[in-house]
Design brief:
With about 475 residues, this protein is of the alpha+beta class. Among the domains are: about 170 residues, no CATH class; about 160 residues, no CATH class. The protein has 15 helices and 12 strands. A hairpin with a 3-residue loop joins strand 9 and strand 10. It starts with 15 loop residues before the first strand and ends in a 30-residue tail after the last helix. It binds adenosine monophosphate (AMP) and magnesium ion. Adenosine monophosphate binds next to loops. The site of adenosine monophosphate has 17 residues, from loops.
Length: about 475
């Protein structure tokens, strides 16, 4: 079914542990992403669903696979842990997709590995479905992220705060190399390991850097730029990752391991959903700063490769960190310029955007709806937009300032309205809808999950049949906390 070519497993032994998935009692295929499978050149045999489920649950290791658990370290909430590693995930192997891009196929929740420590190596149904929904929402929103290939029930219980149903999430990623992977070797003083890994990721993700005078500095710079751009896009979608530990930040620039993540309903930059983020370290507005902090940790690992002279190496790394800040700012303004329907760039755009955000904060406006309804305002219908705000005057002042800025552009209202509708989704996987889908699934009803998935496939379209999924939660429907633990 897979045409594997496993480059990571060809690295030295200390990069991973070879380990087979532990078979489960009763694998049942819950969801399979046919479109992604085709993109990956995977041939799924639906005439034999039992075998398909057995392969995707890890019971049958397909020919060509080289199952491994990857070694990595990481800063968790600021504290360094020298050994984490795949404790509940097994990399089955790599395939080269139709566009020639190498992609990892990983089974999350496939049983214990040498990195499991006290964990059971398993995943619960709810978090698996959450990652499925969120992954596919990202794809539809055009935000780089790991993808969902399948969800499989194991037929076994997992023991969390309560007894839950076990499941395996089949994840596809450009690779699973994280900042924490570099930290694993750096923390052991294994400079050869750092260099081998750097060469590996340059070849896999940044081949254009191979001829550079200092490819390692260029690598640091490129990772930093991709992460700056990625976080700007999260901000534009009102997304809060929730666990931006260094082991949850990829080298490829894809969003990964968004366990207790959530999208904002009403705009509040201090917002935190994750039950374990008690200090608000990973609050919405802290994300760019944390991204930069994480890049600094990567820079520390790469220092010996940047320059033999340590002082010069530090100087070069600091240059990249400064550039991260600047790039984030540029990307952020670019993202939000699109969100307020500007076609041109002008000085003061940053302030105009900030003014809207502060009106939204004061007026407790729903982030997604307020931006979406600007399209109406572009065509002269202000009412729906203004109705998003509990405090109108600031919002209506803002509309005047916005119109003044727009008067310098030649585009017609209708053209601007369509640009706004293409930049601002009508539909995001709102927390209360995600929770609703997961709790129904826990009782065996997958219809909410299926419907939400169908809805988020086209987030920029307003489809009457999904209108109920576009609205903010009623007070009694609000979800204030999210939990991790896939
Ligand atoms: P995460 O919260 O997904 O970023 O995971 C942090 C670390 O905890 C990783 O090393 C995981 O492999 C490990 N881990 C999380 N859950 C489990 C589990 N159920 N069994 C074993 N290891 C786990
Ligand atoms: Mg993780």
């Amino acid at each position: 079914m897979f045409q594997f070519d496993n480059s990571y497993a060809r690295l030295p032994d200390r990069f991973f542990a070879s380990v087979y998935p532990e078979p489960v009692d009763g694998p049942v295929l819950l969801k399979f992403n046919q479109e992604l499978a085709e993109e990956l050149g995977i041939e799924a045999d639906f005439s034999d669903p039992a075998r398909l489920a057995a392969v995707l649950a890890g019971n049958v290791v397909p020919p060509g696979a080289a199952p491994i658990a990857m070694a990595y370290a990481g800063h968790q909430f600021g504290n360094f842990v020298p050994q984490l590693g795949d404790g509940r995930a097994i990399l089955l192997g790599e395939v080269v997709d139709r566009r020639g891009v190498r992609r990892d196929i990983q089974l999350k929740g496939a049983g214990p590995t040498p990195f499991s420590r006290r964990g059971d190596g398993r995943a619960a149904l709810g978090p698996v479905l959450r990652e499925y929904i969120l992954s596919e929402a990202f794809a539809a929103l055009g935000i780089p992220a790991t993808r969902a290939l399948a969800a499989v029930a194991t037929g076994e219980p997992v023991y969390r705060e309560r007894v839950e149903q076990g499941a395996v999430f089949v994840r596809v990623a450009a690779s699973h190399v994280r900042i924490g992977t570099f930290q694993f070797f750096a923390a052991r003083g294994d400079n050869d390991g750092v260099k081998l890994l750097a060469d590996y990721v340059i070849e896999r993700h940044y081949p254009e850097l191979q001829g550079r005078e200092n490819p390692y500095l260029a690598l640091l710079g490129e990772v930093a730029m991709r992460q700056a751009a990625l976080i700007a896009r999260w901000m534009g979608a009102g997304f809060i990752h929730g666990v931006m530990n260094t082991d949850n930040m990829t080298i490829s620039g894809e969003t990964i391991d968004f366990g207790p993540c959530a999208f904002l309903d009403e705009y509040n930059p201090m917002k935190v959903f994750s039950s374990i983020d008690q200090m608000g370290r990973y609050a919405y507005r802290n994300q760019p700063g944390i991204g930069q902090w994480n890049i600094a940790r990567l820079a520390e690992c790469l220092l010996p490769l940047l320059n033999v002279d340590e002082e010069k190496a530090v100087e070069a790394a600091n240059g990249v960190l400064k550039e991260f800040g600047e790039r984030f700012q540029t990307e952020w303004v670019a993202v939000f310029r699109r969100k307020i329907g500007l076609f041109s760039e002008a000085e003061g755009d940053g302030e105009l955007i900030q003014a809207l955000l502060s009106a939204m904060q004061e007026g407790e406006a729903d982030f997604t709806l307020a931006f979406r309804r600007l399209a109406g305002a572009a065509e002269g219908e202000d009412e729906a937009f203004l109705a998003c705000f509990a405090a109108i005057p600031k919002a209506s002042d803002w509309l005047s300032a916005w119109r003044e800025r727009l008067s310098g552009e030649m585009q017609e209202g209708s053209e601007r309205a369509s640009a706004l509708r293409a930049a601002n989704p009508a539909l995001i996987p709102r927390n209360h809808r995600v929770e609703e889908a997961l709790s129904a699934a826990n009782y065996g009803d997958f219809s909410y999950f299926e419907r939400l998935l169908a809805a988020i496939e086209h987030p920029f379209e307003e489809r009457p049949e999904f209108a109920d999924l576009t609205t903010p939660p009623k007070p009694e429907e609000r979800v204030t906390q999210t939990f991790c633990g896939t």
